[in-house]
Amino acid sequence: TFEPKKNLTRAQIATLMSKLLDESKVYKMYKLVSDTQEGLIRTKYGYINKKGEEVIPFIYYVANDFSEGLAAVKKNGKYGYINEKGEEVIPFIYDVARSFSEGLAATFKDEGCGYIDKEGNEIIPFIYWDAYDFSEGLAIVGGSNGYGCIDKEGREIISCEYKIIGKFSEGLARAKNSNEKWGYINKKGEEIIPFIYDDASDFSDGVARVQDGNGNYIYIDKEGNIEK
What does pTM read for this prediction? Predict the structure, then answer.
């Protein structure tokens, strides 16, 4: 975490910030602006460069950080995507839009959600009620019977039967079944660690923190063995 020293001059602060920022990028900011149509003061988003200069106007009601060269932004009630020049690349036709990840972005419209590419082409049909970013080749989606995972071709790799699925970490994902118990599955949807826990966290450095049936928190390895 960056913690600046106290009593720095403005010039020194500017120098430090310059080192932290990448000159090739633009950065999301917001400010209060007057909405002339409604006569209100609203928070709107735009983008600045490392010098603090406005490079994309403050005209958006919602703005995501840039990811893979594009940012999802909202104006006039709909989401679309812009590039780092502020040019509209994908039209403002979506009810919700997530950031691009592994070349695809989850978008929502007409009471469904699916995935588009960077040209705005529909790659995975809008047949889900919830959808998240791709990670390690898979994305979590919500189907009629619960959450599962699909690949970038739209094939259901893990059946949409879970109440919750976490992101994959170290090859495993925590999941919650219909009995309100947590366990862990692999990328094939195979149960690796039984669904016997009341709570579970992602794996990190080979271990995960879980809560057993007695309310105790313990650590387990990737085979379900209790870490001493």
Answer: 0.79
